[in-house]
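Researcher: Sequence of P-type domain-containing protein follows. Predict its structure.
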Amino acid sequence: MKSYQKLTTDSTQVPEAGEDNVDGRPLCHQKLSAWWLGGGLLMVAALLSGVTVWVLGQIWWSQHGTPPLAKCVSIPEDLRFDCYPERNTVVTQELCEARGCCFVDSEQSSGSTNGVPWCFYPPDFPSYTLGSVNETELGLVGFLTRKAKAYYPKDIEKLQLSVEFETDTRLHVKITDATSPRNEVPLEVPPVTKKAETPYIPLSSPRRTVLLNTTMAPLFFADQFLQISTLLPSSYLYGLGEHRSNFLHSLEWNTLTFWARDVPPTESFNLYGVHPFYLVMEKTGAAHGVFLLNSNAMEVALQPAPALTWRTIGGVLDFYIFLGPDPNLVVQQYQQVIGFPAMPPYWGLGFHLCRWGYGSSNETWETVKAMRNFQIPQDAQWNDIDYMEGYRDFTVDSQKFGALPQMVEDLHKHGQYYVMILDPGISSTQPPGSYWPYDEGLKRGVFINNTQGEPLIGKVWPGLTAYPDFSNPDTHQWWLENLNRFHSIVPFDGIWIDMNEPSDFMDGSSEGCSQGKLDNPPYGLNPCSTRESIGTSAHYNLHNLYGLMEAKATASALIKLREKRPFIISRSTFPSQGKYSGHWLGDNRSSWKDMAWSIPGMLSFSLFGIPLVGADICGFSGSTSEELCTRWMQLGAFYPFSRNHNTQDEKAQDPPAFSPAARTTMKEALEIRYSLLPYLYSLFHRAHLQGDTVARPLFFEFPKDVATYSIDKQFLWGRGLLVTPVLDPGVDWVVGYFPRGLWYDYYTGSLVNSSGENLKMAAPLDHINLHIREGTILPTQKPGCCTVISRGNPMRLIAALSQNANAWGDLYWDDGESLDAFAKGDYSYLVFNVTQNTFTSAVLHSNVEATHVTVDVLTVYGVGEEPKIVTVNGKEWPFSYLTNQVLTVSDLQLSLSQGFSIQWK
Ligand SMILES: *[C@@H]1O[C@H](CO)[C@@H](O)[C@H](O)[C@H]1NC(C)=O
Ligand SMILES: *[C@@H]1O[C@H](CO)[C@@H](O)[C@H](O)[C@H]1NC(C)=O
Ligand SMILES: *[C@@H]1O[C@H](CO)[C@@H](O)[C@H](O)[C@H]1NC(C)=O
Ligand SMILES: *[C@@H]1O[C@H](CO)[C@@H](O)[C@H](O)[C@H]1NC(C)=O
Ligand SMILES: *[C@@H]1O[C@H](CO)[C@@H](O)[C@H](O)[C@H]1NC(C)=O
Ligand SMILES: *[C@@H]1O[C@H](CO)[C@@H](O)[C@H](O)[C@H]1NC(C)=O
Ligand SMILES: CC(=O)N[C@H]1CO[C@H](CO)[C@@H](O)[C@@H]1O
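Model: Prediction complete. Tokens:
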């Protein structure tokens, strides 16, 4: 440890990257340098391969007092940081100046009608001073001290700041109370070994971007109010969920709340999950990401400077900064911290059907039979809460759902699966001795208590309920035993965990909100959100983690019960949720607008490391129409998690419920999905292995193309398949953006040679536009009724040649359900490529799994000239060639487990 001297210079000049002669001594760390300049300026710069500069900013101090108006007015509106963000408060000059802030009302804001705050911080508002800076193994540590009281109670005087360069591309900045411990999120960040790191990809030109600049507004660190603001290097900001918004966030004075909440998706509301992570596309096409690891109720205020303010009402300021430099790497680096998503079972990628209000097991069963009858692919049938007796978990309505066990047996006989809903609320009103889950839960003390140490009672579907405390390991054991007892009656395969924000139909609890400080924080966030607080001390900190903890308990129970990969879909989510579950986007309406919102929702969850995501196809509440449902089935066939789900008392919306024409179109859309499952499954493997996205925003693949930055009506599967759905009623065309390059129509192989333009395409009601990107090889398989069949069908490989006549693709294959198949080596991995008129399949890893799968057809799109001869492993072979430059070689019967080559000249 080396103590660090304050320097005398007043320079605030930013040193250039790699410059050694700045007025300050860099700490001796290979990648991280810190300079402490005059006036309390701390600057931390990360020098990445000598080209990247990253700056934390400065934390400064000056005299407190009412600032002179002239100084206030001179602050540009976009740079006014809100000093009075309290909702439902009319900010007066008196209130504002009592905080030592500038007050400039709307007239003086040059007639501006936007959200420019009237009360904002002067540039010299008092904050913390940095001192005692020492070098540590990975960075530096110092103390921040505050001399003047701020205006929130229990202002913490002395903080510890640590800045650590944990990997070449990840910085960890943590600000905590220097003297006493505070709530921290129990997230285990895996140690990063050099080996596991993703390679650093040098940019062609130096990246001298200031990613964070925290100098414009003061740092606050009181017991129940923590705030830090930063300028952003651009307005291209993504992430920050769960909210309903465009994929690209608006920075027009837009405040987003983070508090898990049961509410139908509505713009500007905080929704079911909490993901304090954002990704920014910088002006150069490079990307970085920031994650605030904090589980308390919080808020992010965005303003057009562009700037961002974090406000949280508990915990610590624990930031991870990911340097990318491309968006795929940012998301991978984020998942190195929160954990990579679980590998789903293969059947989980099939089509799922559900509704609330089938009314009986027989009606549910009839739907499955109708699907089979029309040969529409389906892997899983689900039930909502109506299967239960009085909506109580782990019960079956014996009158209406008496045949449920037989139905599940029948599903299994057909290679299909059963998933049912479970809510966390456990009915507390049954006579003692009649409801094991509650009786046993009470006995074992697994429920969340109120301040008097009694189980806290709220209200959900079954009426009054207690809430399991999933932070307690005893609760996991009790949950497992409940599931085990139920599984012996209904041998379910997957679980849908709903209402786990946790939802409560009452205000706080049956006793209302407590009077304690935790139910009445000095900075009340959105009253709609605090309303749902359950008033125990831990819950204040744990509320946002509830869905994560329940998913963890459920996944571990399912593994014990089935000894196969668990399949779980959760409504509430938190960072690292992908390790345990997928997510659906909640209780949408059957409307065109809601269908369109599903794409930004899905893409945001790709950023959050929860690739298994989809919306309720055809819409949950409200009544769908045949046209809407047809379009939605086409789009939903490309949700990574594909489920049609409906509410009670609405018309049926399962495919058999529609006209023959609509039904056929829906069936065809699902058959395309089933054809593409080998590709989708391989994408999930990459997500599981290293955090690649599955449903991918266009700009991830074209980060230099600014036109892609706001696209959220189209998306990619992986790098190679572009999906352009119709999102409007009454049209038979669609406009889609095609980044520069060659794109081939999935169905015909016809070429689109784009210069980076919007193109209008035919889109009759029975057609969804799909395009393969140049240079891609897609492994596809003949579809079947369900994955158990399709997995055994012959494959067709589709190669879409690049301008240079190359293509690349891969296939991950295993038995589709074993735990840790990859870790145990029980898989096959194949790489396909085309170079110099030769297609090769190379087997890089092989086990018995792939031997019975054959490759039957190779289709090559973009073969410029008709070949004279085609050879397969050196042997001449018949072929067909179409004038739209499509070469097809059929009847191959090649074993997937052996390498082969196909040549044309
Ligand atoms: C830095 O080192 C000095 C001297 O050992 C020590 O007094 C000080 O507390 C250290 N600072 C921090 C933040 O630990
Ligand atoms: C931070 O932002 C302020 C205000 O725009 C600017 O004066 C200062 O130079 C910035 N600091 C760095 C390191 O870019
Ligand atoms: C369900 O169907 C089975 C066989 O078709 C029949 O025996 C049973 O009574 C039905 N159950 C209900 C609850 O309708
Ligand atoms: C709740 O109180 C019961 C006793 O009433 C106790 O056994 C249990 O441990 C408490 N639970 C929690 C989470 O504190
Ligand atoms: C695509 O367009 C570019 C630019 O016009 C041209 O150079 C290229 O040859 C075209 N490629 C094909 C396969 O038509
Ligand atoms: C394509 O396959 C051949 C033969 O297996 C191999 O030599 C070549 O390196 C591969 N090219 C690419 C880009 O993977
Ligand atoms: C169930 C429900 O009504 N959900 C919401 C779906 O989204 C729209 C806005 O897009 C909301 O207004 C609805 O409340």
